[in-house]
Design goal:
mainly alpha
Length: about 220
């Protein structure tokens, strides 16, 4: 407890650094995954290749990707941009296949009805397909959020400040409480961001609240 209280400012700075890397990656993943999934859905024969390729991105070792990206991007190895780009790629590997499946699951009869009413393709996607696929996309985003918070710690091995710094420093100096603090802070941050995603879904997808209310109502 003494170590924790004495190092509270440092822990706070690592937490802020962690959030500044994880949150932009999560947002970028969501923003990019939807158009990529839509494009993938329309590509026919190439669809399977693209979905499989997106999934295989997750098989790339994170530390190796963090080392390769500076060469590709022309940035320093300790630049937080590398971490954000890597985390976004891993997020896309998870969310693109999920989003494609969610869009595929939309009832074709609903789409045909919207078309018959004169709704254009872009408007139909924004007002019919995307809202109906929203709950499944939200579930995928929750997985991405927790995964991203966890993977952000890897950057500490290369000297990028985050909560992972508490792992590496605690291990090198043999301070168990520092390691445990890093683990606990990372887990709590993942829970907090997941709760924010759920809250966002609650606000943006109000029809899902009504559906759950009807399901929970007595017969």
């Amino acid at each position: 407890m003494t170590w924790f209280l004495n190092n509270l400012p440092a822990i706070g700075s690592y937490l802020i650094a962690h959030v500044s890397q994880a949150v932009p990656a999560i947002v970028a993943t969501l923003v990019l995954a939807i158009p990529i999934a839509r494009l993938t859905q329309r590509l026919g024969p190439l669809r399977g290749i693209l979905v499989s390729g997106a999934s295989l991105l997750y098989a790339i070792p994170s530390l190796a990707l963090f080392v390769i990206l500076p060469v590709v991007l022309g940035t320093g190895i300790r630049d937080t941009v590398n971490v954000i780009v890597a985390l976004t790629l891993y997020g896309l590997a998870l969310l693109v296949p999920t989003t494609v499946d969610a869009l595929d699951a939309v009832d074709q009869r609903v789409l045909d009805a919207a078309t018959a009413m004169g709704v254009g393709a872009l408007r139909r996607f924004a007002t019919v397909e995307l809202p109906l696929a929203g709950p499944a996309i939200l579930a995928g985003l929750r997985v991405v959020t927790v995964s991203t918070v966890s993977l952000t710690t890897v950057g500490a091995v290369l000297g990028v400040r985050s909560l992972g710094w508490l792992f590496t420093d605690g291990f090198q100096r043999g301070i168990t409480v520092e390691i445990l603090t890093g683990i606990a802070a990372t887990a709590l941050l993942a829970v907090a961001l997941d709760a924010l995603v759920v809250l966002g879904g609650w606000v943006l997808l109000p029809w899902t609240r009504r559906a759950r209310t009807r399901e929970g109502a007595p017969a």
